[in-house]
Amino acid sequence: xxxxxxxxxxxxxxxxxxxxxxxxxxxxxxxxxxxxxxxxxxxxxxxxxxxxxxxxxxxxxxxxxxxxxxxxxxxxxxxxxxxxxxxxxxxxxxxxxxxxxxxxxxxxxxxxxxxxxxxxxxxxxxxxxxxxxxxxxxxxxxxxxxxxxxxxxxxxxxxxxxxxxxxxxxxxxxxxxxxxxxxxxxxxxxxxxxxxxxxxxxxxxxxxxxxxxxxxxxxxxxxxxxxxxxxxxxxxxxxxxxxxxxxxxxxxxxxxxxxxxxxxxxxxxxxxxxxxxxxxxxxxxxxxxxxxxxxxxxxxxxxxxxxxxxxxxxxxxxxxxxxxxxxxxxxxxxxxxxxxxxxxxxxxxxxxxxxxxxxxxxxxxxxxxxxxxxxxxxxxxxxxxxxxxxxxxxxxxxxxxxxxxxxxxxxxxxxxxxxx
Length: 420
Prior knowledge:
- By secondary structure, the protein is an alpha+beta fold.
- The chain has a domain at 109-233.
- It is 33% helix and 21% strand.
- It has twelve helices and 17 strands.
- Strands 1-2-6-7-10-13-14-15-17 form a nine-stranded mixed beta sheet. Strands 3-5-4 form a three-stranded antiparallel beta sheet. The chain has a three-stranded antiparallel beta sheet with strand order 8-9-16.
- The chain starts with 24 loop residues before the first helix and ends with a strand.
- The relative contact order is 0.13.
- Mean pLDDT is 86; it is low at 1-55.
């Protein structure tokens, strides 16, 4: 029997244990406390509203314990304007949120969940067959095809990286990291080549909520030889689509006095009342994660925040930080299956598009070896604006925006870019 990549044992380089710097230890502990409260609970969005003395802002939680994806999200809603009917509205939104997070969990799962819905698991197990699916999943898949995104086809590569992220130590992580394992790197390059080739695998959108995941005979042989179970998965992109589904469902029912945000950087704010909100612009310096700036806004917004470093325990599923400071992340390039980022973190936002479309436009820019200013300009033409750091200088390209520097760390500046 041919050994699969998970069975292979590489030659390992000795792991060095490096002591963390004690510099600014007081500031670091303060920031850790701030991040635990703000980044992991409020997710850096709606900070003004979340801590406002104005009554009515509440976190909406699911009302049932059935499997759902609510653990990835915070839904905040302001019930102030509903007066005496606030409790009834709260109950309706809670029921909707419960149903939506359960359905999203089922639809986007690549595991065998007990459901009558034809989900991603069903699609992966009915290759080269026409499958009728739920309209929510159909719309998400149609967006993938519309933007010609190849990231979901990297599912076999994501499986290998998942083994890195759940590792307990550097030795175990390096077994599954192509950066340390040449044999595994060769396998991942081959798998990525299949994933990136529309002749090898391609999703067909057929109308009437029908799709077909077409896979070539050559790729089918590779799948069987290597024991691959999943060839298409939204992976790290899933929560962008789920946030849009929940936000659009709420808006369709007239519930727009709130926002939903995921721990991994996808936020949909629906509030049209002109209320002030803010979004923190994080920046990593060595072992420290700072908040040197923020942006203020007062209108509906879709915000995507991508970063190549972990900020909390939930990030364990997307990152692994080695003792030498290097970090493996889930942001993989379809061309070679390697973890890449053009900059440490980037924010993109739009008033007109949902999180999924912002992400699909932004991902090729961020998951790259270098910054592409032409891509940034192309996004700007469609009113998708970006913010990123270069050292201690913050670049932004929204002419209406003026980031407010916070007194957390001295020495930061900001520049309107790209220069024209």
